[in-house]
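step 3/5: co-fold with flavin mononucleotide
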Amino acid sequence: MVDLKVKIHDLEFKNPITLASGTCGFAREMADFFDPSIVGGFFLKGSTLKNRDGNAYPRMAETPAGMLNAVGLQNKGIDYFIENIYPEIKDYDTQLIINVNGSTVEDYIALTERVNELDKIRGIELNISCPNVKEGGMAFGVSCPGAEMVTREVRKVYDKTLIVKLSPNVTDISEIAKAVERQGADAVSLVNTFLGMAIDAETRKPKLSTITGGLSGPAIKPIALRMVWQVANAVKIPVIGMGGIMNAADAIEFMLAGASVVQIGTAVFKDPLLAVQIIKELEEYMDRHNIQNVNDLVGGLQM
Amino acid sequence: MVDLKVKIHDLEFKNPITLASGTCGFAREMADFFDPSIVGGFFLKGSTLKNRDGNAYPRMAETPAGMLNAVGLQNKGIDYFIENIYPEIKDYDTQLIINVNGSTVEDYIALTERVNELDKIRGIELNISCPNVKEGGMAFGVSCPGAEMVTREVRKVYDKTLIVKLSPNVTDISEIAKAVERQGADAVSLVNTFLGMAIDAETRKPKLSTITGGLSGPAIKPIALRMVWQVANAVKIPVIGMGGIMNAADAIEFMLAGASVVQIGTAVFKDPLLAVQIIKELEEYMDRHNIQNVNDLVGGLQM
Amino acid sequence: MTKKFVANFVVVENKPLNATNFLIKVKSDSTLPPIFPGQFVNVEINDSKEIFLRRPFSIFEVDQKENTLSMIVKILGRGSKKLTEIEPGNQVSLVYPLGKSFTYPSSTDKVLLIGGGSGVAPMLFLAKEAGLDKTQVDVLLGARTKEDHIDVEHYSKYAQLHYATEDGSKGEKGFVTQHSVFTSGLRKYDKIYACGPDGMMRAIAKVAKAEDVFCEVSLENLMACGFGVCLCCIEPTQKGNLCVCTDGPVFNIKDLKW
Amino acid sequence: MTKKFVANFVVVENKPLNATNFLIKVKSDSTLPPIFPGQFVNVEINDSKEIFLRRPFSIFEVDQKENTLSMIVKILGRGSKKLTEIEPGNQVSLVYPLGKSFTYPSSTDKVLLIGGGSGVAPMLFLAKEAGLDKTQVDVLLGARTKEDHIDVEHYSKYAQLHYATEDGSKGEKGFVTQHSVFTSGLRKYDKIYACGPDGMMRAIAKVAKAEDVFCEVSLENLMACGFGVCLCCIEPTQKGNLCVCTDGPVFNIKDLKW
Ligand SMILES: Cc1cc2nc3c(=O)[nH]c(=O)nc-3n(C[C@H](O)[C@H](O)[C@H](O)COP(=O)(O)OP(=O)(O)OC[C@H]3O[C@@H](n4cnc5c(N)ncnc54)[C@H](O)[C@@H]3O)c2cc1C
Ligand SMILES: Cc1cc2nc3c(=O)[nH]c(=O)nc-3n(C[C@H](O)[C@H](O)[C@H](O)COP(=O)(O)OP(=O)(O)OC[C@H]3O[C@@H](n4cnc5c(N)ncnc54)[C@H](O)[C@@H]3O)c2cc1C
Ligand SMILES: Cc1cc2nc3c(=O)[nH]c(=O)nc-3n(C[C@H](O)[C@H](O)[C@H](O)COP(=O)(O)O)c2cc1C
Ligand SMILES: Cc1cc2nc3c(=O)[nH]c(=O)nc-3n(C[C@H](O)[C@H](O)[C@H](O)COP(=O)(O)O)c2cc1C
Ligand code: FES
Ligand code: FES
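step 4/5: write C-alpha cells
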C-alpha cells in the first residue's frame, strides 16, 4: 500500500487530491456523487462577510479547452454559512478549507476572525486573486506590497493554517509568493483564473455580462504548471497547485513541478467523480513507478 | 464589393489578414501553398544580427488546444537574410514586415539600421517579448522603462512604420502599450506567446529542452482577446491583434475588440491555406452584416 | 440531498422527428433511480474538438423496466448537432438526474401544459406521468409551421392535444397565447405548466399571473456544471439569484421577477 | 519551391496489417502531383478532443491512375490510435507532398534497404520505384517477433527480402545489424538506405561510415508544421540545425553528427 498522506503546516490531508474553490460548492453538493471522506479536502466556495448576489447573467462562456466565468463571488455571507451550511458539513471526515474574500483589509480580518471560531475549519485560503470582482482582492494579489499587507494583517489574527491564493495575472508570480511567505503564509495556492474575454462575432456583443471573466480549464494548464514550478523553486513553504487538471497524469505533473497538494477545478463540471478516479490512478501510478510515499513525487521533476 | 483596406501608419494593407512571425517562415514557404499577394502581409520569422542556432531539440509540445514552442529564434542572421532571402521575396505584392530581435539596445539599433536599407520592407515589428531566449528581449518587454527605452532608441534611427510587439506575461499590458506609444511607436502588436511548461508524467522529465516555452494557439485566445481590448482602449495608435485565431469568427472578434490588423499564427501549421479562407469568409460576413468598410468593424464591440 | 450519478449509457435509438429534432434513447446497464418530469441530464458530447462542457437536455421518457431514458434534441449549435450524429451502439456519458421536477397535480386538478420547441419534451413527460384522466389534461403545442411540429399523436391517450402554428399550417394560426384554449380563460385550470422559448413563457406567465392561476415554467440557460456548484446558471428571483440547475429548472412564476 | 497542397481525401481502405499496424489508403478527387519515396503527408486527426496538431506519416504507395496514396500507421499514442479507427468513406485532410525524397539509385547500382517498424513503408516504396532489377535490391526488415512483421511478400518482385527478428521467430535472429546480409560487408552495395528507430539507424550509419558506403536515412521527430516554417523539427547537422521536414526527412549520414 502506498502512502498518500501529505501535510501542509498543521493540515493533514489523507491524500493530495482536493477540490478547488468555486467548483465544489460547499462540499455537500459533491456528497450527492461520492463519499466526501474519500478526497483529501474541499476548498469551499468563496465567502465574503456579507451576502453577495454576484454578477448578472450570462456568467459563463465556453472557450477552446476551457471556460470563462464571471460569477462574482455570489454567496450568502459568512453568517449564513456558519448557521446553515457549516453544521451540515462539519463532520465530513476530510479537510474543509474556507476561501476568504474581501475588498478591504478589514473585510479579510473580520471574516478570518469569524472563521476562527469554527473548530472543523482548520485552514483558510486567502483569495487575493479573484479577477471578477473588487471584493475578490485581485487589487491586492497583483502587487507585492498589496499581497504582503493583507497577508500580514490576517496572519496577526489567525493561528491555524493560512494559505494565500495567488493570481496568475502578474509579471512575476514568484515575487508575490515570496512576499506572502515573508509575511507568514503557511502555504500558497495557485493559480486562480486568468482574465479573459469572449465575443459573439454574430451579435458583436461580449458573451459575459461583465465583458471580461476568469479563464479556467485545460487551456491554462501549461501556464499554471510553469507558475507552480517557478513558485516551488522560489519559496520554502508548500505549494498547492491547480489549473486545468483533467486526469491523474495532469495531477502528477503538478506534483512533479512542486505541488504538495493539487486542486481539481473546472474538470469537476465535466466529471463530478473525477477526484475519486484520480486518487485511484495516482495509487496505480505510484505502484507502477515504485514510489511508496507520495511526498517523494513532489518536486520530482528530472532534469 | 466590400473594402478591406486598412492602414497602419504608412503601411497599406490590402486586407487585415496577415501571418504571424515565426509561423510563416520568410513568406516563400507559404508561396508553395498560395499566391502571397492574396494576404495582407507577412510578419517574417524573427531575425537577429548574427546567426543563431536556436535551442536544442525537443522544441515543441502539444497542449490542450495549443502548443508550446522553444525554437529560440533560430535564424541565419540579418546579412544572410539580406543577401539570400530578401531578393527572392521582395517583389511579392504584399506587405513584408521584419521581426527584429536583440539582447541589447545596441543589437536592436544595429539590426534596424540594416533593415532600413531595404526598400521593400516598409515596417519593422520590434519583438520585445520572446519568452524563449534572452535575445528575444522579454527582459525589455515586461517592464515599462525597458520597453520605453528600446522603443525610444530604435525610433531615433527608423522613420518607417515601427510596430512594437508586446509580451502577455505582464500584470498590466496596457501600461506597457502606453509606454511604447509615448516613445513614438506607430502601432503595437499583441500577443506574443505565454510562458508555459509541459512535463511527461511517465518519464518525469520536461517535454522541452528548455523546460519552459511559449504557449500559442486557441487555448490563449480568451486572454489575448482581453488584452487586445484593454490595449485598444488605452492607446490611440493602431493595434495588431493575434493569439489563437483559428477561423474568420476569431479574426472578427479581434477586430471587434479593437485590432485593425490580425495575424494568424499557430493555426497556419494546421491549415496553411487558412489566411486565404479567412479573407473570403470575412467578405461574406461583411456582406451579411452590411458593412462596407472593414475599418468599421474595428473596435465595433457593442456593449 | 438526492443521489446523483455519472454513468455511461448505450445509445439504443437515434431517430429524426423532423428536420431539426431528434429522439435519442439511451440505456443503462443498471437500474435507474426515480426520475420525474422536469428533470434533466447533462450529456457529454464525444469526439468534438470544439466542445468542452456537457450539454443539458430535459428527460422526455423513462422506462424503468428497460432502464432506458430518452430526450428530444433540437439542433441549435455545435454540441446539439454533434449529439444528433451519434450512432446506436455508441456510448454516451450522462450526469443525472438533475434539477427539480414539476409539482404534480392532485387527482382532481384540471391542467394545461404548453410546450414550444424542444420544451415539448418535459410537457409530454408530465402529461404521461401526471396520472390524470385525459379529459383533465390539455396539451397545447406551438411551433412556427406544421413541419416544425413533431408527431406526438400517441400522447392522445394521456391528454387532449391542441396545436398552434404561426402560419396556420397545423391547428390554429398564431402563437400559443393566441390559441382558443388559452384565450378562453385560464381560470378553468388548476395548474398551468409551460416549457419553451423565453418569450413564450413570459407571455404565458403574464396572463397566468393576471388571472391568478398556479403556473410553473421550466427555464433553460447556460450551464457549466448542472448540479449547483458553479453558480453560472442563475435566474434573478424574489429570493435572490437562484440556480436554474438545482433550484429549478422548474419555477413557480410567483417566484420569478417576470 | 515545389507546390504543396492541403486537401481532403476519402478513406478507401483501412486494414490491420498486424496488431499495431494499419494500412490506410486514401483517394483524392483530383490528380496527384508527383510523389517520391521518402516524402510524407501531414494528416489531420478528426474528432479528437485531445489532439491539436497534425501527425506526419510516410507515403507508402501511390497510384497515380487511381489518385490514391497509402500509409502504414503504427499505433504509438493518441493520434495514431484515432487515425487507425477511421472508417472507409470518411474524409481526412492531408498536407502534402512534404519533405525531400531519397536519392534514386542509378541503373547499375546494387542497393540495400533496411526498414524497422513503420520505417518499412518508405523502404518498400523506394524498392518499387527504384526501377532496378530485383537482383540489385536487397530489402532487410527487422522487428521484435514474427508477429511484428507485416506481410510484404508481394514485394519479392522488386527485391530480395530478408528478415530479422529479435527472438528468431522469423528470418535470422537478432537485430538487422546482426543479419548476415549486413555483416557480410556493406562494400558490395553502392547505396544503402534506412528508415526505422533511431538506434537502428545510428548503428547502420556507424558501419556504413566505417566502410565508406553511401547511406541515406530517413529521420522522424516531433513536427508542428511539416513545411518548414515552425523550426521545431531540427536535427543538428554539419551544416547547423536543419529542418527534418524540409531539409529532410532523408539525410545523407555524412551530413549528420552521428
Ligand atoms: C435545463 C435545460 C433543459 C434543456 N432541455 C432541452 C431539450 O430537452 N431539448 C433541447 O433540444 N434542448 C434543451 N436545452 C437546451 C440545450 O441545452 C441547448 O440547446 C444546448 O446546450 C446547445 O448546445 P450547442 O452546443 O448545440 O450550442 P452552442 O454551439 O453552445 O450555442 C449556440 C448558441 O446558442 C446559445 N445557447 C446555447 N445553449 C443555450 C441555453 N441553454 N440558453 C440560452 N442560449 C443558449 C449559445 O450562447 C450560442 O449563441 C435545455 C437546456 C437546459 C438548461
Ligand atoms: C517524417 C515522418 C514520417 C513518419 N512516418 C511514419 C509512418 O510511416 N508510419 C508511422 O506509423 N509513423 C510515422 N511517423 C511517426 C508518427 O508521426 C508518430 O507515430 C505520430 O505522430 C504519433 O502520434 P500520436 O498522436 O499517436 O502520439 P502522441 O500521443 O502524440 O505521442 C506518444 C509518444 O510518442 C512521442 N512521439 C510522437 N511522435 C514522435 C516522433 N515523430 N518522434 C519521436 N517521438 C514521438 C511523443 O512525444 C509521446 O511521448 C513519422 C514521423 C515523421 C516525422
Ligand atoms: C465557476 C468558477 C468559480 C470560481 N470561484 C472561485 C472562488 O470563489 N474562489 C477562488 O479562490 N477561486 C475560484 N475559482 C477558481 C478556481 O478555484 C481555480 O483556481 C481555477 O478555476 C483554476 O483551476 P481549474 O482550471 O482546474 O478550474 C472559480 C473557478 C470557476 C471556474
Ligand atoms: C513556433 C513559433 C515560433 C514563433 N516565433 C516568433 C518570432 O520569431 N518572433 C515573434 O515575434 N513571435 C514569434 N512567435 C509568436 C507568434 O508570432 C504569435 O505571437 C503567437 O504564436 C500567438 O499567436 P497564435 O496563437 O495565433 O500562434 C512564434 C510562435 C510560434 C508558435
Ligand atoms: S450550472 Fe452550475 S450551478 Fe447551475
Ligand atoms: S515541422 Fe515545422 S519546420 Fe519542420
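step 5/5: annotate
Chain C has two domains: 5-98, 111-255.
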